[in-house]
Amino acid sequence: MQLREFFVPSAIKLDLAAETKDEALKELVSCMGLDGKSEGILYKMLKRRENLGSTGIGRGIAIPHCRSLVVTRLRVAFGRKLSGLDFKAIDEKPVRYVFLIVAPPLEVSNQYLPVLGKIAQFGKEADVPELLAEISSPEQFIELLDAKDL
Amino acid sequence: MDQQLELLLEIQDLRMQRRGLTDGTLTDLEAEVFDIKIEDAIQSLDEKVEQLAQKLTRGVRERYRRIADKAPRVVAPVINGICYGCFVAVSTARASEADRNLRVESCEYCGCFLYHVG
Predict the structure, then answer these.
(1) Segments making up each domain of chain B, as ranges
(2) How far apart are CA B65 and CA B60, in angstroms?
(3) Does A52 contact B48 at a Cβ distance shorter than 8 Å?
(4) What is the pTM of this model?
(5) Neighbouring C-beta atoms of residue B86, cutoff 10 Å
(6) B6 and A45 in contact by Cβ < 8 A?
(7) Is any Cβ of chain A less than 8 angstroms from the Cβ of B12?
(8) Cα torsion A83, A87, A89, A93: sign
(9) Which has the closest alpha carbon to B34: A116, A128, A97, A93?
(10) Distance from CA of A37 to the nearest CA of B (A)
(11) Which DSSP category does B91 fall into?
(12) What is the pLDDT tens value at each position of chain A, 150 positions in all?
């Protein structure tokens, strides 16, 4: 399983309009191609997960995630906000890179956990924040995952 | 979408989140990467589920409790006419209804509440 297989250019936003954590979640949810009602349910679930504890893992990276009935397959999105967002991250620093992961409750191939784990591992690599700041197109984002053999 | 069904979807998603913390699949990752306090998170999820359950009408709540006591899944997605609670085809009339998700309905085989996806 390669991480890059799950990312599509339309769900890679290198210049998020969002100014807050909630707006960033909504903006990334809107990349999923769901109807309005489903987007609302998904956003609410992501917020509830955030209420258990921030998904900001430090070094400018957040990985909001949840399972929800409103999706039929694992979906991911990436958003970048170079000026930073207050995510109440573990290190209390602004978040600049947001990886959104959503999976259905039932998955035949059970990809949710490995994808979440791989993105967390990717986010912990020392050079990743700097490399994510430098990319200028969704294609370069995919190339970065390729280069990291993810 | 029916408001009761929407509540049931939220409850189901929260129950799945709870399950991930208790069956070991997500426990380590949530604790180590996201620094979640698992016991606190479980308690918080239980409280939220109960709050939402109280908003269900009496009839739906009673049916919800009967299902929830026996199975982890109270709402099953219907995808391409198949109930993913029991993998049996739901009746064609139901699957093709234009107003699907506009009322609360259950699978006649497994009893799960049904949510038509897509």
Answers:
(1) 3-116
(2) 9
(3) no
(4) 0.89
(5) 16
(6) no
(7) yes
(8) positive
(9) A116
(10) 8
(11) P
(12) 788 889 999 999 999 999 999 999 999 999 998 988 899 999 999 999 999 999 999 999 999 999 999 998 999 999 999 999 999 999 999 999 999 999 998 777 788 989 999 999 999 899 999 999 999 999 999 999 988 878
CA distance A14 to chain B (A): 24
Domains and CATH numbers, chain A: 3-147 (3.40.930.10)
Looking at the domain covering B3-116, what would its CATH class be?
Answer: mainly alpha
Residue of chain B minimizing CA distance to A108: B84
Q: Which residues of B touch A48 (CB under 8 A)?
A: 14, 17, 48
Q: How many C-beta atoms surround the C-beta of residue B98 within 10 A?
A: 5
**C-beta atoms of B1 and A116 within 8 A:** no
| Distance of residue B116 Cα from the nearest chain A Cα, in angstroms | 9
